[in-house]
Amino acid sequence: MTALEFNSQLAQAIKALKPFAVRLTKDLEDANDLLQDTMYKAFTNQEKFADGTNLKAWLYTIMKNTFITNYQRMVRRKTFIDTTDNLHYINSTASISQNIGVSSLAMQEITEALDALDEVYRTPFMMYFKGFKYHEIAERLGIPIGTVKNRIHIARKELKDKLLKLGY
């Protein structure tokens, strides 16, 4: 295939490649850039194209590989790698100061929300919170395991609603 024939077939293939580029990039400008990169690579690597094979398939492969390479490059650029020597300082809790007033107020409001629960829901919930298994709670309270699960679910839901109203 002569260079003129190759260039002519490349120009004809652009119309077929553009929808694929748009589908890959999901952006028209990026698709145009990808299409341009693909055509440039195809033109500069013309000698690698085997005469008598499917030119469009070759171009689709170049486009797909170019897209993947560009995507991986973009992901690497956005990845932050901390190269500091003293990594133990990053997660050090020695310099953290706690606002005890806010946390004690929050605990007080959570306790009040728990106390406001009906006893029939609060008891299984608190037992589960303390680490009892469903079957242990059912045995101690003398109720079916399904009832235990239901009461714990209702207690969670009511607590969630009350705490959301308080802004938690």
Automatic annotation (TrEMBL):
Gene3D superfamilies for this protein: 1.10.1740.10, Winged helix-like DNA-binding domain superfamily/Winged helix DNA-binding domain (1.10.10.10)
Protein name: Sigma70-ECF: RNA polymerase sigma factor, sigma-70 family
Domain RNA polymerase sigma-70 region: 16-73
Keywords, alphabetical: Sigma factor, Transcription, Transcription regulation
Source species, domain of life: Bacteria
Family as reported in the entry's similarity comment: Belongs to the sigma-70 factor family. ECF subfamily.
InterPro entries found in the cross-reference section: RNA_pol_sigma-70-like, RNA_pol_sigma-70_dom, RNA_pol_sigma70_r2, RNA_pol_sigma70_r4_t2, RNA_pol_sigma_r2, RNA_pol_sigma_r3/r4-like, WH-like_DNA-bd_sf
Listed transmembrane segments: none
GO biological processes: DNA-templated transcription initiation
